[in-house]
Amino acid sequence: MKQINWGFIGCGEVTERKSGPAFNLIEGSRVVAVMSRSKEKAASYAQRHNIERWYTDAQSLINDPEVNAIYIATPPSSHATYSIMSMKAGKPVYVEKPLAATYADCQRVMRISAETGIPCFVAYYRRNLPYFQKVAELVASNAIGKVINVQIRFSVPPRDLDYNSTNLPWRVQRDIAGGGYFYDLAPHQLDLLQQLFGPIVYVNGYHANRGGLYQTEDTVSAAFAFQDGMPGSGSWCFVGHDSARTDQIELIGEKGRLCFSVFTYNPVVLQTSDGQQEFIIPNPQHVQLPLIQEVVHHLQGKTTCTCDSISATSVNWVMDRILGKI
User: Which residue spans within the chain are E strands per DSSP?
Assistant: First the structure.
């Protein structure tokens, strides 16, 4: 494929800046159609972003003869269905994370991709950001020596929307999101760690609802181990006091420690016997651009993108184990 003509299924907040504009900034890539179940939303998005056509039916967009690749930016519960529809139509997929709302659905997507030979890429875009590539570079260069333990710590207060029991955000509705905010945010953290250290093969977790604002879990703790036996742990709280606000992954090594954030992009901190160094690394305006470029280049035969349904399925396995879904 030389020219990649994208059709968007879904045109929510994530497509406005994080991803959407990036598709038109890459040579040989452009957005030609968009779909939303809301006629007004689809028409407005197409007009604002100079997109030629809009649809209110996903199959109609997939069948558009000019569209030869699909971006799925809907809530997780529909990811598997739209991904499979697209691949069976012979069209590569780039789908928002997590790949699906359950590990079982991820397996279905992965199987269809293997059977059809049509690639399914997943938007774990942080892998390709300079910030996290710096972290990977420091780990690979043995800046802290052999890494012997990994700790995830994350805590935020409830959002204003979380108090509206009659109109809760979809991200805390299990049938739509797969879980609560843990299922929305933890995938990025777990994907990054598996890119650094290989697959997590042992995991146990405990989850609870301590705030009572919604039905899904709001507090999670987990212990896990990678294939080489290195242990790790994680603690997530989505109803904590503001004074406990934390976004940090700490890598403890034989020669020092390396700390970084995943969502706030605080300076990467390297501490060894030689002292402490901080690295401030800015992100591109459209944070998904580096990964989308790699996906486009893969489809054009220029490179290989491994941010696919295989690696993404592993992330869902870890999350479902933590939440006791499998």
Answer: 4-9, 29-35, 53-55, 69-72, 93-95, 120-122, 147-155, 200-208, 219-226, 231-237, 246-253, 256-260, 268-272, 275-279
Same-domain check for residues 118 and 174: no
- Look at residues 318, 322, 296, 308 and name the one whose alpha carbon lies nearest to residue 113: 308
Evaluate whether residue 72 is within a structural domain. Answer: yes
CB neighbour list of residue 178: distance below 8 Å, 6 or more residues apart: 76, 77, 98, 100, 101, 102, 319
The pTM assigned to this predicted structure is 0.96
> Can you give the residue range of the structural domain that contains 158?
130-282
Dist CA 237 CA 220 (whole Å):
6
Same domain, 144 and 265: yes
- For 257-270, the pLDDT digits (tens) are 999 999 999 999 99
